[in-house]
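Task 17 of the worksheet. Students: predict the tertiary structure of the chain below and write it out as structure tokens. Keep your answer in the requested format; marks are given for formatting as well as content.
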Amino acid sequence: MTAGEITTHDSASSRPPRRPEVLDGPFTTRQLLRLDQALRVADRSTGLTFSVYVGELDEPVRDHAEKLLMQLADPASSVLIAVSPNQRVLEIVTGPKARVRLPDRDCKLAALSMAAAFGGGDLAGGIVTGLAQLAAHARRA
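Model answer:
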């Protein structure tokens, strides 16, 4: 979920090795840990597979998000949240088995909550909230 390069020890340099660090990306380490935890909880509590993609989406964005879903290990039982902050786009795509438990109405409600958080500048928090809502709806189904 992060973009950027990893820096490691340069053997030609006399500097001591440094811990790898993310140089560029939309999330802090703490936010990544929150997202990972939210994904694990959603997966475990529903039996579905939840994934998040953050980055540019090709036009038409819905088609691109659907192609990303099809690349997952079990697309039929998967839910993909695709977010492109620069394009101001959010897509929630569900596979056929997941759609039975997460109809469009439930995905739209989660999308509204996420969009509200995104509008306030909280990308990671919006995704975590959306994952929790989607998982809660899927458990009730």
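Marker's comment: The chain has five helices and three strands. The longest helix spans residues 29-46.
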